[in-house]
UniProtKB/TrEMBL annotation:
SUPFAM superfamilies: PLP-binding barrel. It comes from Streptomyces malaysiensis. This is Pyridoxal phosphate homeostasis protein. Pyridoxal 5'-phosphate (PLP)-binding protein, which is involved in PLP homeostasis. Coiled coil: none annotated. One of its GO terms (molecular function) is pyridoxal phosphate binding. Belongs to the pyridoxal phosphate-binding protein YggS/PROSC family. The keyword Membrane does not apply. Its cofactor is pyridoxal 5'-phosphate.
Amino acid sequence: MTDRKAELAANLTLVEERISAACAGAGRKREEVTLIVVTKTYPASDVRLLAELGVRHVAENRDQEAAPKAAECADLPLIWHFVGQLQTNKVRSVSSYADVVQSVDRKRLVDALSRAAVGAGRELGVLIQVALDADSGERGARGGVGPDGVERLAESVTEAEGLRLDGLMTVAPLAGPYEGRPRAAFDRLMEISSRLRVAHPAANMVSAGMSSDLEEAVAAGATHVRVGTAVLGVRPRLR
């Protein structure tokens, strides 16, 4: 085993132990939580090693990096998640490789994704990104739609050809009433998810929690956690 593969294997084991312990503490089954490894800034060679180690879900946040990486790894049995703020001029590219777009936060983006998915002959999973630091009708500092805009946007997704409403995503806010309170933020996301599932029962995916707060996300009820640094190490600086 190469040094890098051994390093990734050890890190994955530690993350697995954290998720398992969090599930046990919350009275949940381990299989209720899916690990998504965020591979941004890391090379395709790391993605290949992760796949060899059993990882099936990977995430990227910049199309200019993700597109060539996904192409290089097209032979692997991976599910690709796009988690970054997405401009409409990147939608056609993203829709060619992403299986799930987790950062949908406005009607214009829904429309663009729909056109691209239909053009590519694909069905894209969509998560609505909820901004818990946003006022009514506003977008959050890190993207996302305010809680009061979720239902309307969900209807747009369900009416759009080529898209499938899978659920909700959030990033713990850096400001506002939930600053420094990830568990409270994730509890609020679960409340919004419960409301959404009344009208859209299949939209049961809840993506929340990262390397620093995955335990709080699991305790709140997240179905997917997005972990980068704890698996891959401290990120190289972007040039």
